[in-house]
TrEMBL record:
It comes from Aegilops tauschii subsp. strangulata. It comes from the Eukaryota. Residues 2-68, 111-221, 276-389 form the PGG domain. GO terms for cellular component: membrane. This is PGG domain-containing protein. PANTHER family: CASKIN, OS06G0294400 PROTEIN. InterPro entries: PGG_dom. The chain crosses the membrane at residues 17-36, 45-63, 75-96, 117-134, 167-187, 199-216, 228-250, 282-299, 328-351, 372-389, 395-416.
Length: 431
């Protein structure tokens, strides 16, 4: 009947597996929200048990709903186990000589801050990859093909370009399973403390980000040349970041030769540490949010995609790509720049590999670079919105004018505030 899920008709067992796993995850998440309000239940670790049930429900729902092949479902579920095994091996090899310091409040505080940043990334990455896996780019076939190879409900991208679809599927699945494994590990302090110290979770996060970029490159377009452009764009941004890092290291090395340290470096001011942590947290939040919306917009472009080739266009291609190509190109590349810049900012916020005496100058310098990158990121996002949210250049110019008006308002407000502050200080001085 109209309105019934296609998967319910074509593969009843798979639909039931997806439906009940997804329902268990949803209900358990609602129960977890209720458990947070009860302090007694939190003390008995009922909340952690509910969260684990949620995560395993999501894994089962993703494996059943993201593909139509049993082998692929098994591979998708095996990825989560592989990630957990890697983290255990990494911890064993990189913490052999580590000795825990008793009552080290500063180290515990730093670990907790890094845990929150990693958890923030893992939650949002799991959200967007789960949705992208269940509703892949290009949409689904509405009816069986003439040769009988693919059926209604199969992804259009799989029908047109099987290799490209497989690349998207596995990149997206790896990122999803990495995120789920990160959340599982970050729930237990006995697991996440050695994992964070050994940088095992940072490695997993970096791999998840690279896979997310690979999924974007393969899923946001059906043309190989455009995917290469996205990869080249990502490489260029990463090389620029690496070049800036090299300049910093060379400058630091030169200064250390001219002015060798004569006395031990004092402990950083706690107030300055709090400010730097707040800036890192805000940058991470902005980077993750922009990467999330840009990833979804790239895989689900404005105007939708052609669902069949009957109209003379290739099924799975964006409608705006064929109807309004210049506008689509402005949207696509603005969105891609925003996505890549966000991923680079998140990657730059992950490592904690410098020695303590070098971290102060590096953090101050790198935060400035990331601030400018986030600004580029947001302006590119505004360009993508102006190009993709409507189909007339006149309306796009209205959006641009609105942006200029808002920026002008902030400038005027700052000028007025500065003048009033100066007058107040002058009156106080005279008094």
């Amino acid at each position: 009947m109209a309105g019934d899920p296609i998967l319910l008709t074509t593969n009843l067992a798979r639909y039931r597996a997806f439906y009940y796993c997804n329902s268990v995850a949803f209900v358990a998440s609602l129960v977890a929200i209720v458990l947070v309000q009860k302090e007694k239940l939190v003390k008995h670790h009922a909340l952690e048990a509910a969260m684990i049930l949620v995560l395993f429900g999501l894994i089962g729902a993703y494996a059943a709903g993201s593909c139509r092949d049993v082998n692929k479902s098994i591979y998708a579920m095996a990825l989560a186990g592989a990630v957990l095994i890697y983290v255990v091996i990494h911890i064993v090899f990189f913490t052999l000589d580590h000795k825990d310091k008793k009552d080290d409040a500063r180290e515990d505080l730093l670990l907790e801050k890094r845990r929150k940043r990693l958890l923030l990334f893992a939650i949002l990455a799991a959200t967007i990859t789960y949705q992208a896996g269940l509703t892949p780019p290009g949409g689904f076939l509405l009816q069986d093909d003439k040769l009988g190879r693919h059926h209604a409900g199969d992804p259009v991208l799989l029908d047109n370009y099987p290799r490209r679809y497989n690349a998207f599927f596995y990149c997206n699945s790896i990122s999803f399973m990495l995120s789920i494994a990160l959340i599982i590990l970050l729930v237990n302090p006995n697991l996440y403390r050695p994992a964070i110290r050994s940088n095992a979770l940072s490695v997993c996060t970096a791999v998840g980000l690279l896979c997310l970029m690979g999924a974007y490159a393969t899923g946001s377009t059906q043309h190989l040349k455009t995917s290469i452009y996205i990869i080249v764009l990502a490489v260029v941004v990463l090389l620029v970041a690496a070049g800036l890092l090299l300049v910093f290291l060379l400058k630091r090395h030169g200064n250390s030769k001219k002015n060798p340290p004569s006395a031990p470096i004092k402990q950083k001011d706690q107030k300055g540490e709090r400010k730097k942590h707040a800036r890192r947290k805000y940058l991470m939040l902005l980077g993750i949010l922009v990467a999330s919306v840009a990833y979804q917009a790239g895989l689900k472009p404005p105007g939708g995609t052609w669902q069949s080739g009957d109209s003379g266009y290739e099924a799975g291609n964006p409608v705006m790509h064929d109807n309004r190509r210049p506008r689509y190109l402005v949207f696509f590349y603005s969105n891609s720049i925003s996505f890549v810049a966000s991923i680079v900012v998140i990657i730059m916020l992950l490592p904690q590999w410098l020695r303590k005496e070098q971290q102060g100058e590096w953090e101050k310098w790198s935060l400035r670079v990331m601030n400018w990158t986030i600004r580029l990121d947001l302006f590119a996002l505004l360009g993508a919105y102006a190009a993709g949210s409507n189909r007339g250049w006149k309306t796009s110019m209205y959006v641009v004018a609105l942006i200029i008006a808002v920026l002008g308002y902030f400038v005027i407000h700052m000028k007025i505030s500065t003048c009033l502050e100066r007058r107040r200080k002058k009156r106080d001085a005279e008094a």
